[in-house]
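User: Hey, quick favor. My workstation is busy. Could you predict this chain's structure for me?
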Amino acid sequence: MEPTKVTIKKLEQVTDLLKEADESSIGTYLFKGLRIQISKYRASGSERFARLYHRRREQGLCVVCGAKVTKKNPRTKKAYRLCEEHRDKIDKRAK
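Assistant: No problem, here it is.
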């Protein structure tokens, strides 16, 4: 995942979130050529994966590869969690 370019105002907002121990401050930021990475200390692999899974779902990306998901579930009107390629490999194979 590419770092998010931030201004000094945005960096101040992130530090305010850090003071509150808010998990939305977790991420990688780019400020004037410096990469600032904020992550949870000693987070387990499952915690990191869960955060990645939720972030990709919210952005409408495939949870496996991160590609943009274009098709929507006709019943729920929400984007599928997997791209077409991974739906063929994972979801449709199980049937």
